[in-house]
Amino acid sequence: MDVKTEKLENTDQMNSAEDFLPLKGTDYIEYYVGNAKQAAHYYKTAFGFQSLAYAGLSTGLKDRESYVVVQDKIRLILTSPLHSGTEIGEHIDKHGDGVKVVAFWVDDAEKSFNETVKRGAKPYLEPVVEEDEHGKVKKSGIHTYGDTVHIFIERTEYNGCFLPGYVKWESNYNPDSIGLKYVDHMVGNVELGEMNTWVDFYGQALGFSQIVSFDDKDISTDYTALMSKVMSNGNGKVKFPINEPAAGKKKSQIEEYLDFYEGPGIQHIAIATDDIIKTVIELNKRGVEFLYVPTSYYDDVLDRVGKIDEDIEPLRDLGILVDRDEEGYLLQIFTKPVEPRPTLFYEIIQRKGAKSFGKGNFKALFEAIEREQELRGTL
Ligand code: FE2
Questions:
Q1: Greatest CA separation for the chain
Q2: Per-residue pLDDT tens for 87-108?
Q3: Domains of the chain by residue range
Q4: What is the CATH code for 21-168?
Q5: Residue 326 Cα distances to 306, 308, 322, angstroms
Q6: Which helix (H) or strand (E) holds 89?
Q7: Which residues surround ligand 1, an ion (CB under 5 A)?
Q8: Distance 203 CA to ligand 1 centre (A)
Q9: pTM of this prediction?
Q10: Which CATH number fits domain 180-376: 1.20.1730.10, 1.10.10.10, 3.40.50.920, 3.10.180.10?
């Protein structure tokens, strides 16, 4: 079955919509976690991030501590509360470790706020200027699904290491990068019947357009099913697939996520690499666990995707999946969840022309997830 590409009906509306919220990319992702210090160490050790910035007691914060790590264009903030009764602590109590903020890099944080709020976004942070000796940053923010928020970051007048209030985090421990480049896409799971609500939200309030949709006939196994639509901003730098569960014989992986996260949230973050074989060999060495794909997947993979540059052996040894669309092919692999609850996981992706999301692999992938659910007793 072919991927459906749906265009918005009114292209004029789409073109003008692209203008009101030009996003220059993902500025950072902030996680609320139980132990930010140890989580930062994990992202350095396992995923090859480097120490970037720190804010906490020693910089004058009383309620939280944040560690920022970086690899190429990807910046992650790991934040923990310093006492009970905080909003951060409540978030962790309810959701476990998870993504709180997906921040966008913009030229005008105030306009981003005004335009999105005017179109129905719920305000999270009124436009505010933060300043230190390195310059100033303007920020604003809106709510999206669940307790997740988007922050708009305007940093044209700032030349510090990260954001005002942060100091450079110097560390003696600097593991090598593993070649992670940028955030390719971030997937949200929302409740049954809510996918279109959030598709409309990204369309209307943020001016995104829908580039792909999958229904339960595309994505189903004997047990599980889901529906998904992919929303993209105008320049394609920010892509958000949104999933909702569909009826299957047993509990879908989306329902499992919603049960354990106790609501909608970010399901996986796909990170791009230029050399997936090298990156995945490194991740394996560093203890990152991936979903197991049966070796039978590789028996007919070349019949399905045609000629590829890579040898099939290392792909099979590492469990890397391959898919092709009209524009090229892609290589991808999925980690197991990276926290005790079966919630957030990562995708490593290398695009060789393909702009799609690996639909041809969904069945193999879902069967792999179901084997894990079976082991957890949640299928
Ligand atoms: Fe993905």
A1: 60
A2: 999 999 999 999 999 999 999 9
A3: 21-168, 180-376
A4: 3.10.180.10
A5: 12, 14, 14
A6: helix 87-95
A7: 270, 347
A8: 20
A9: 0.92
A10: 3.10.180.10
